[in-house]
Amino acid sequence: MPSWDPAQYAKFGDHRLRPALDLIGRIPDIDPRRIADLGCGAGEITEMLAARWPGAEVVGLDSSPDMLKKSRALNGRAEYVESDVASWTALPPVDLLFSNACLQWLPDHARLFPRLVGQVAGGGVLAVQMPHNHDQPSHRIIQRLSDEAPFKGPLAGKLRHDPVDAPGIYWRMLKPITAKLDIWEVDYLQALAGDDPVLNWTMGTALRPVLDALDETLRSQFVEKYREGLRAAYPREADGSTLFPFRRLFILAAR
Ligand SMILES: C[S@@+](CC[C@H](N)C(=O)[O-])C[C@H]1O[C@@H](n2cnc3c(N)ncnc32)[C@H](O)[C@@H]1O
Predict the structure, then answer these.
(1) 125 part of a folded domain
(2) How distant is the alpha carbon of residue 102 from its chain centre?
């Protein structure tokens, strides 16, 4: 697991929030008694779930103490618990199992997703959003640089394989074990402002394992080469913004 920097992650709050709101908007009109938000991060979205279902007991789970510090500081209605989603079990099962932009950090989705469906009570819903963007230059440049000297040695075994699969794979996996299934993808055309905005974006997410693994000298060399590659792949538009297309996968599964 990479380290998390809540301030860096929050820099593109609006772009990161939108898919979560799109997902919440598609959740059917259920009346959940228990809600769990897996990988709740800084808690803003967890509190939105708590506001939408004021009668429900809401728990946000995250493995990062820094993120949990932020979520608890909201002084909202949800309870926040340090926990690893890989081994977490809902006791008893929850009526809404929600996860925004977290499950792409967990391996082996062929085991994970059926296990998560098993944590949802009858009549309940699993609602998931994950980035599905690892074939884009923002990720491919990291991969290419990590195969080159002098980074290859220190990064050996430190970068993970992204487990997010094609939508049809999830459909075939979940159809036999759910009552109703809706899977879709959205390409968000994100127009980002400022200098090196794609670098700033990935510093809060995909680049974190690299930043964690390299010493200060190699880290700044890596970031400079990455910055160069990103500037070529994502040139500025006439108005100064940078277009950063971003595909996200949504899964809504009712038991
Ligand atoms: C990209 S952030 C998303 C946070 C929040 N859901 C949101 O949409 O703003 C991913 C979060 O997942 C958490 N996370 C990643 N792997 C996890 C795991 N195995 N168990 C629990 N939390 C995890 C990270 O600590 C981080 O807070």
Answers:
(1) yes
(2) 4
Q: Is residue 1 part of a domain?
A: no
Ramachandran assignment for 159, one of left (phi > 0), alpha (psi -120 to 50 degrees), beta (any other): beta
Domain count, the chain: 1
Residue 183 in domain:
yes
Q: Is 104 in the pocket of ligand 1 (CB under 6 A)?
A: no
Q: Kindly state if the Cβ of 249 falls inside 6 Å of ligand 1.
A: no
pLDDT of 1 above 70? no
**CA of 236 relative to ligand 1 center, distance in Å:** 30
At residue 161, the pLDDT reads: 85
CA angle 208, 132, 186 (to 5 degrees): 130
CB atoms within 10 A of CB 209: 19
**Average pLDDT of every residue of the chain:** 95
What is the domain-level CATH number for residue 161?
A: 3.40.50.150
Q: Are 20 and 100 in contact (CB under 8 A)?
A: yes
What is the average per-residue pLDDT within 182-198?
96
Ligand 1 atom closest to Cα of residue 4: 25
Q: Which structural domain range is residue 175 located in? A: 6-254
Q: For residue 170, report the phi and psi dihedrals to the nearest 5 degrees.
A: -70, -35
**Beta strand residue intervals within 165-241, DSSP E:** 180-192
For 42-52, write each residue's pLDDT tens digit.
999 999 999 99
CB distance 105 to ligand 1 below 6 Å = yes
